[in-house]
Amino acid sequence: MRRTSHGQQKLALLEPLLASLRYRHSFRLIKEMLASGEQVEGFDIGCGFKGDFVAKANLLEGVNFRGGDLEVDDRPELFRFDLSNPGTLPFSPNLVTLHAVLEHIYDPVAVVRYVHSILRPGGYFLLTAPSPAAKPILELLAFRLGLICRTEIEDHKQYFDRKLLLKLLGKPSGPFDEVKHTYFQLGLNNLAICRKL
Fold first, then answer.
1. How confident is the model at residue 3 (pLDDT cuts 50, 70, 90)?
2. What element of type H or E holds 167?
3. Which CATH number does 15-195 carry?
4. Of 167, 114, 124, 111, nearest to 25 (Cα)?
5. Which of 34, 103, 127, 170 is in the most buried spot, having the most CB atoms within 10 Å?
6. Measured between alpha carbons, how far is 42 from 57 in angstroms, rounded to an integer?
7. Angle formed by the axes of helices 108-118 and 162-169, to 10°?
8. Using omega within 30 degrees of 0 as the cis cutoff, is the peptide bond preceding 132 cis?
9. CB atoms < 10 A from the CB of 116, how many?
10. Are 185 and 131 spatial neighbours (Cβ–Cβ below 8 Å)?
11. Element housing 118 (H / E)
């Protein structure tokens, strides 16, 4: 059964707040890239049906972001995209974002290698993913309180800690030359920023 793209139906109460807490890290990186004189050609994988992050990023001068998901709204900057069969992109991004998507993936190694392959040299890959400490809290919020989307939480395949992410992303086992990791939301979420040199 094909999974419905996040945001295609009405979002649960806490969804917009949690998304904005993830997006702020991407906006910080975008502003750093712009401040260094670099134009941003971005790709948001798993952008959701409406591509909220893409729309907000494109409000910044010097930014051209596109987004892909299983189902997307009819807007030129959004297109259908399936990580299980990604194909080639008609553009070469210097920033790829993956906001709370990796935990839904059966083969995170293949996804990370794909991202590395489409990034320009010098480009960045920013991802957020919940940590194991988040699992009981997310399940409480989804299953008992209904404050976040139940189907999204049921679809989680894996939770990531710092050690697992560094092994997945950085050399020698991962493809990225530089990887910076930090936790946010009191250790419930991971932030990793990788660079392809």
1. very low
2. helix 162-169
3. 3.40.50.150
4. 124
5. 127
6. 9
7. 50
8. no
9. 18
10. no
11. helix 108-118
pLDDT tens track for 146-176: 999 999 999 999 999 999 999 999 999 999 9
Distance separating the N- and C-terminal Cα atoms of the chain: 39
Q: Which residue has the tokens 């992109």?
A: 89
Sign of the dihedral defined by the CA atoms of residues 63, 55, 79, 76, in that order = negative
- The ranges assigned to domains in the chain are 15-195
**Look-up of token digits 């094909």:** 2
Query: Token pair 């489409």 is at which residue?
Result: 118
Answer yes or no: are the C-beta atoms of 123 and 96 closer than 8 Å.
yes
Rg of the Cα trace of the chain? 16
Distances (CA, A) of 139 to 15, 38, 63, 147: 14, 40, 36, 10
DSSP letters of 30-77?
A: HHHHHHTT--EEEEEET--SS-HHHHHHTTSTTEEEEEEESS--S-TT
